[in-house]
Design brief:
- With about 260 residues, the protein is α/β, with parallel strands linked by helices.
- The protein has eight helices and seven strands; from the N terminus they run E-H-E-H-E-H-E-H-E-H-E-H-H-H-E.
- A seven-stranded parallel β-sheet has the order 3-2-1-4-5-6-7, sandwiched between helices.
- It is globular and about 55 Å long.
């Protein structure tokens, strides 16, 4: 299927690896030019070079912490008039409800709620002026079914979800389509870190901890960045114009819900 977005320009945050990179690669495969962002310059430059070579698109790499005002300013200056925005940032650390104080919640809100909102406010007006745009926010399955050890993420990402629910319906009539992608467990560094924590807590090896988590997923495996990216690319496509303010769950069936 031709997604109809060749020649468009996208900002993909946290895209040197993991789900962000999966989204960047899927968009590049459709002929979308990229502004890629991540904190680590070396990994980012390597990813950008590989994508340029593989897909022949323009790729601008901006090493910066997107969760800070300075980092966002640097990225936005490079982004200019992008047509597509994919927001993404690493999740807060796991723990128990007794572990977190106000500063922990503020940090989580800054990274996983307020940063995407700031990027939306900066870039969507230009999309409206041009009559076309796409925004995809990478959130988490935890906005559908909370994960107790990820309470900081549960709170911050659910806040973003509420904001997007209203905003998406305000801008859809002006050609800007905004949705959220909710990953379950995917084979990324984040999953490896959580497997390590689970292994320690359960007194088992990391491979055993992973095997136990895979057994909780009806699909029987972790997701891949490539299949996640393909879904992101579709939501950014010309075919997604009637999908507004939705939360698309990619979790292998792990959330047991009818709707």
């Amino acid at each position: 299927m031709d997604l109809g977005i060749a020649g468009k320009r996208a900002l993909v945050c946290a895209s040197s690896k993991g789900l962000g990179r999966g989204c960047a690669e899927a968009l590049a495969a459709e002929g979308v030019h990229l502004v890629m962002n991540a904190r680590g310059a070396e990994a980012l430059e390597a990813a950008a070079a590989e994508i340029r070579a593989a897909y022949g698109v323009e790729v601008v790499a901006v090493a910066a912490d997107i969760t800070t005002e300075e980092g966002r300013a640097k990225v936005l200056a490079a982004a200019g008039d992008v047509d597509i925005l994919v927001t993404n940032a690493g999740g807060p650390p796991p723990g128990m409800w007794t572990d977190w104080d106000r500063a922990d919640f503020i940090a989580a809100l800054d990274a996983n709620m307020l940063t995407p909102i700031a990027l939306i406010k900066a870039l969507v007006p230009g999309m409206i002026a041009r009559g076309w745009g796409r925004v995809v926010n990478i959130t988490s399955q935890s906005v559908k079914a909370p994960l107790a050890v990820l309470g900081l993420s549960n709170a911050a990402r659910t806040g973003l979800t509420g904001y997007v629910a209203g905003t998406a319906r305000q801008v859809a009539g002006q050609g800007v389509i905004m949705n959220n992608l909710l990953p379950g467990i995917h084979d990324t560094d984040r999953a490896t870190a959580l497997d390590g924590g689970a292994a320690k807590a359960q007194g088992v090896s990391v491979p055993e901890a992973r095997k136990r988590r895979e057994a909780t997923i009806p699909a029987g495996r972790y997701g891949t960045a490539a299949e996640f990216g393909a879904t992101c690319a579709f939501l950014c496509s010309q075919h997604a114009g009637f999908i507004v303010g939705q939360n698309v769950l990619l979790d292998g069936g792990a959330v047991n819900a009818t709707i």
